[in-house]
Amino acid sequence: MKDYYYFLGISHDASEEDIKKSYRKLSLKYHPDKNENDVFFADRFREIQEAYETLNDRDKRKTYDQNLENHQKSFRYNIPPSIKTFTANKIHAQKGEEIILNWQTQNADVVKVLPFGLEKAYGERIFKITEFKDGKFQILLHVTNSLLHKTVVQGITITEVFENDGEKFRDKAEDLFRSQPKTAANPSGQPKVFRIIAAVILLLLAIYFLIKSFS
Q: What CATH code is assigned to 77-161?
């Protein structure tokens, strides 16, 4: 059973004002329009909306709390969560290649497969990797028993492979000219090639002035 309080990051005795405050904060953070319609953020936004619509309505919240209590009583909350299986049909793949994940967990009321979001205690997900980071794509299974406040995590790393050396060279060359994420060290998000050129120029200038100082 979905834990709406967990979705909103609030306690089970949260006030109406606490619910609204958390909803406003999270809906702004995960709104698809602010995250380039990313699937992960879109799914998270729907979960937040669903939780708010239930907890913000007194009658719906009362019914939900009763169902949640009954679920918790029937659930073995005194046993730590565990991961029975977490597998992928391949750990080496090309961009756009289909990956099939399977998992099965025990004694957990909150199950997340990152970067996708909340899932059932067992299941299957089929997806395609559109982008690797440094040649890798990481998937994490988070399994939580919220009453015991215990979480178990297991990961799978998919490594990028190329059809041939030419494709690998082309991909690396394209990466040099691709705009980078904005950071404190690179506030304008300049491509790697610009920073390499700047570093080479600074090195040549340093060598020039060093030679000049000895002449």
A: 2.60.40.10
